[in-house]
Amino acid sequence: MSTTTTARAIIDLDVTGHRINRHIYGHFAEHLGRCIYDGFWVGEDSAIPNVRGIRLDIVEALRALDIPNLRWPGGCFADTYHWRDGIGPREQRPRIANTNWGDVVENNHFGTHEFMDLCDLLGADAYVNGNIGSGTVQEMAEWVEYLTRGDDSPMARLRRENGRDEPWKVPFWGLGNEAWGCGGNMSAAHYAEEARRYATFTHNHGENRLTRIAAGANEDDLDWTRVLMKSLMDCHGCTLYGNLPYQAISFHYYTHSGSGINTEDAVPFSDEKYYETMAYAADVERVVRGHVAVMDSYDPDNRVSLVCDEWGTWWNVEEGTNLGFLFQQNTVRDALVAGLHFDVFHRYARRLSMANIAQTVNVLQAMVLTDGDRLVLTPTYHVFEMNKGHQDALQLTAHVRDLPTTRVRGEDLPLISMSASTREETALISLSHLAVDADCTVSIDLRGRGATVSRARVLTGDDASAFNDAATPDRVAPRALDAVLRDGMLTVTMPPHSFATVELELEPEFSAIEREEVAS
Prior knowledge:
Layout: E1 3-19, E2 26-28, E3 50-51, E4 54-55, H1 56-63, E5 69-72, E6 96-98, E7 104-106, H2 112-122, E8 125-130, H3 137-148, H4 154-161, E9 172-175, H5 188-201, E10 211-218, H6 222-233, E11 248-255, H7 271-282, H8 284-298, E12 305-313, H9 332-347, E13 352-357, E14 368-371, E15 374-377, H10 379-387, E16 394-401, E17 405-408, E18 411-414, E19 416-423, E20 426-433, E21 438-447, E22 451-459, E23 479-480, E24 483-486, E25 489-494, E26 498-506, H11 512-519
Parallel strand pairs: 1-21, 2-5, 2-13, 5-8, 8-9, 9-10, 10-11, 11-12, 12-13
Antiparallel strand pairs: 1-16, 3-4, 6-7, 14-15, 16-19, 17-18, 19-20, 20-26, 21-25, 22-23, 22-26, 24-25
Helix pairs in contact: 3-4, 5-6, 6-8, 7-9, 9-10
Keywords: Carbohydrate metabolism, Glycosidase, Hydrolase
Enzyme class: hydrolase
Domain Alpha-L-arabinofuranosidase C-terminal: 309-498
């Protein structure tokens, strides 16, 4: 029998902060396992409904999330990928060995044109990750030209020969990936020089303006960020044309239960492992805060943004699947990891401009899983859908008080996490309740503006290990939540291990003069 705890919070609906960049809700598609092939790409001859070889039900599911951007082709794969292998007639493209993920041979049928077609179908911006590890400066520069130049340059002419007349818009460009590891095992100092050099030759063509993203740290390696920032700010002549060589620095953060990535099962797990996972997910705030502090010390004017372009849970692969394909089950526990991350990302919206969950289809903490012609929406998918109202909204500070905690590895873990935002005449409140065996009644004092509840939903399962599959696709899905708003006090009772959102309609905001006129 569960008990009931309580928590209190205050939200000032009339005091806004920084805008939450919609690109914080970005996604990631690598040539890894069944993410691209047998995921996004089924080919034009497939019996599965598709548009020019791209699986239609996946496109429709992701469009419902208002997906803002998609990162491709990696990941570790990016630093072995040579883009010319993936253009031209498909039957003439060379086969390549994917030595990073499963050591399989692939046919390059999904390349630059197919990726940009996918982005067009999704309504998403392209985030293309270039090859620094095994590529050349010229190769990367020509890829940018091929994609974005509109005149009769050599690469623009080659693009037209391959069937695309107009250039594409590519807002985001990655300068390699995990340079400290699979991207070259470089030192921070060496990579900083390489990043500046490659960035110099990735030009803006026509009206396309690149946000160049330097490959950043592994988790809390603040020294890596420090070296990149110092190299950038000490670069004499780098701002000769009014722009820094790169405009963002990334970091990666994978969640596990404390023993390391790829060491524990996605299901089943004990209560102890569940709480350790929640603690590790919540610790992303310490990591973000550290990188932001380093960047602030070199760049108080916020010219360089922070990007978390790989995040999510990383469990053992499911039994009977290829070890290099990273296919894992997705449970309520994973959904709560997502909820915790977004609360942190919202709080650091001043500096954090983008994040990309790893990965979108069939790999790690995926949005969707495919089983033949069947598609399964994961619990994590539902968190993205419930939270999409935060995209490009303004922060609202949630002061959480008197919340329950539990001890995890000698430290207190708060069992309630919350964030809120507003845009136009609406507000959205997100709540994560982490306790495995207790309800929690949350009372939120809404101040500054009148409001009414337009919708409240909750996501949970019979236990924290509940997941969706082809036989039971709606075992974990949003359902209505009772939310009582009386005299400015919003009250919801959250079941154990649950994620919830409350959508508000706000009353018009009057000026002081208008308030006096109404009162008279």
